[in-house]
Amino acid sequence: MLSAADAAAALSMEGAIAAQREAFGQLAAGQAVIPLRAVLPVAGGTTLFMPGYLRASGVLGLKVVSVMPGNPARDLPAVPGATLLLDDETGLPVALLDAAYLTALRTAAGSGLATDLLAPPDAHVLAVFGAGAQARQHIRAIRAVRPIREVRIVSRREERSRALASELTGVDVRTGDDPGAAVAGAQVVVTATNSASPVFPGAALDVGAHVCAIGAYTPQTREVDEEVVCRARIVVDTREGALSEAGDLLIPMERGLLREGDIDAELGELVNGERPPGNLGRPVTFYKSVGNAAQDLATAHRVVEAARSRGLGTLAPL
Questions:
Q1: If you count Cβ atoms within 10 Å of the first and of the last residue's Cβ in the chain, which end, N or C, has fewer?
Q2: Could you give the angle at the alpha carbon of 82 between the alpha carbons of 41 and 43, nearest 5°?
């Protein structure tokens, strides 16, 4: 059994990004069995059940995670849950991991991988919308792949912006409440919020910028407007997930401004060399993630292997 602290001690952000490369590569190569996740509305929010099997790695498991908007007011994580790994030959449980930390880590690592493949190599200004666990991990991930010198944080809760800013070293940090000013001149923009509507004006985005949108996960919600997606080379974690859940894309499609064919690639197609990196001549690049169990399984597997070698975690009888 591995706590969030165990996982943090076991796996670096670079290791998590490497796990995402493995996960997305297997997805694109047809080496992963990932059923569309089951989503249940519950009293406090939404609970998601995400099973999967990475055949090439022999990693089998399930994540159960909830999105509970009222939890921060209770001093609880907004996205609690657990990840269970099973032996793919015997079906016996192998490990149980805290999923709140792993979800933030693997999502940010996926964005880090996308940024490495799509953003300008010299990108040095990062704008982040949100100041929670996802924002914190995304700053780590983007800094792992790009020479970020300035971080701009925008949040509806100024005290959280200041708290996050106080944790960052080695970069200039700005907090504020002007979304247009935050993205102007930023080469990488991350949206990691609970917002149901666009959090910044797309017209303020500079040519050459890269956007990672990871907060909205239903067809009715979005964090970016049509101005962004209609200008962008669009890369998604999976087409199936994006076309089922990504309001950032589905809302413009419903309005006739975007077509399914405008999704250029899945991230794994870039990993496997089936599609090239970069912007392909488009003004901006846009990576949309709604999350996939392959990401959780690959990351959890790496955490477990590292934890075993370092003696981390607690052994529990079945």
A1: C
A2: 20
Contacts of 91 (CB under 8 A, 6+ apart): none
* Model confidence pTM above 0.85: yes
Nearest 5°: CA angle at 157, between 155 and 159?
110
Whether the Cβ atoms of residue 177 and residue 159 lie closer than 8 Å to each other: no
Contact 272, 29 (CB under 8 A): yes
SS3 73: helix
Within 8 A by CB and 6+ apart from 100, the residues are: 4, 65, 77, 79, 80, 81, 133
Non-local (6+) Cβ contacts of 302 within 8 A are: 11, 15, 16, 18, 19
Q: What is the pLDDT of residues 268-298, one digit of tens each?
A: 999 999 999 999 999 999 999 998 899 999 9
Return the residue matching tokens 């003004």: 283
